[in-house]
Amino acid sequence: MKVLMLGREKHINIISTMEKFFELEKVDSDLLCFDSCTDMELIGKLQDSDLFLMFPESLGQGCLSPETDCSCRIFEAVAAGYVLAHKGRMLLFIHEPSKLSGIFNGVPAVGSIGEALSYFRRERKVFESNKRLLDARRKISEAHLSFSSAGMIQAVEYGMHSETQAFLSAGFSTATETPEGLPLLNIAVRNGDVEICRLLMSYDASLNIIARDRITSPLMDAVTANNQEITRLLIEAGADLNYRNRNGQSALIVAIGSRMAEIAELLIENGADLSIKDSLGMTAAEYAKLFSLTGLYEKLSIFET
Questions:
Q1: Half-sphere exposure of 190 (CA within 13 A, CB side)
Q2: How far apart are CA 186 and CA 33, in angstroms?
Q3: I need a labelling partner for 196 at 20 to 30 A (CA). Which of 66, 106, 248, 290 fits?
C-alpha cells in the first residue's frame, strides 16, 4: 500500500508527523506540495498511489483570500477530481471538517492527527484484504481453475499447493466438500498429500470432520491408507483417536485388522481407548489374538474384560 499526502508547505509539520507514523507502520508514503510541484509530477504521483491524505486548503475556505495562489487551487481541484474519479480512497484533513459539508459528499474528513491515524489503520486492513483477494484470483485464474468451491476441490484433488493456499487466502472454507460429501482434509489424507494436510490444518480445518461416502474421519482415512506420517500428524494435532466407523470400529481396531502393527502401536502410545468393541463385540486385543499379532496382543490383553 502506498499513501500520497497532498498539501502545501504550511502543512509540513503535520505531514512530518504522519510520515513518522507511516514509517513505524512500514507503510510506503510520499509527499506532494501543491506550492512547488509540476503538473507532470502531480499526475505521476497520483497514478502511483493507493490511498490519499489531502489538505484541501482552498476548497475548504469558502472565500478565497487574494494571496491564495491560483496554481495551487487548480492542482488541488485536479487531485481531488482524479482521486474521486479513479481511486475513491481519500481522507480530507481540515481543522473544521464541517466546512466541507456539501463539497465532498461521502468522503471522510478528520480534524486531528489521531483521527487520521485511526482512519489509515482501518484502511490498511481493507487494502491488504483486497490485495490478498486480487492476488488469489489472479493465481487461481492462471491455473485455469474457477473461483468457486468446485475450483478449490480440484486444487486439493490435484495436489496444487499454491493454488490451494490462494483459495484459503481468499476466504474459502476448509469445510468445503464434494457433492458426495468428501471434505477437503479427507481428500488430502486419502491422496497422501502431507503438505496440503498441513496447509488445511493451519487454517483450522476440522480434524474430526466426517466424510459421508465412507463415514470416516481424517484419522480413520489415514490409518486405512497405512500412512504413518499423516496419522502421526493428525494425532499430534489432537484428532479424536476413538471415533468409530459404521461398523463400530475404532482406528486402532482398523489398524490391527489390517495388520498395521506400527500404526497400532502409535495409537496405543497416544492413548487410544483399548476397551472399545465393534459391532461384532470384538476388542482390539481380541483381533490381535485372532490375527496372531503376538506383540500387540501382549500389550492389549491386560485390558480385556
A1: 15
A2: 58
A3: 248
Angle, CA of 248, 253 and 254, to the nearest 5°: 90
- Residue 88 has a pLDDT of 61
Which tens digits make up the pLDDT trace of 127-136?
A: 888 888 999 9
Cell of 301: 490383553
Between CA 71 and CA 60 the distance in angstroms is 16
pLDDT digits (tens, 9 = 90+) for 192-213: 999 999 999 999 999 999 999 9
What is the DSSP code (8-state) at residue 98?
A: G
Determine if residue 73 is left, alpha or beta; phi over 0 gives left, psi from -120 to 50 gives alpha, anything else beta: alpha
**Looking at this protein, which amino acid is placed at residue 250?**
S
Q: How far apart are CA 275 and CA 265, in angstroms?
A: 15
Longest dimension (CA), the chain: 103
Mean pLDDT estimate for the chain: 87
Contact 303, 274 (CB under 8 A): yes
Domains and CATH numbers, the chain: 2-111 (3.40.50.1700), 173-303 (1.25.40.20)
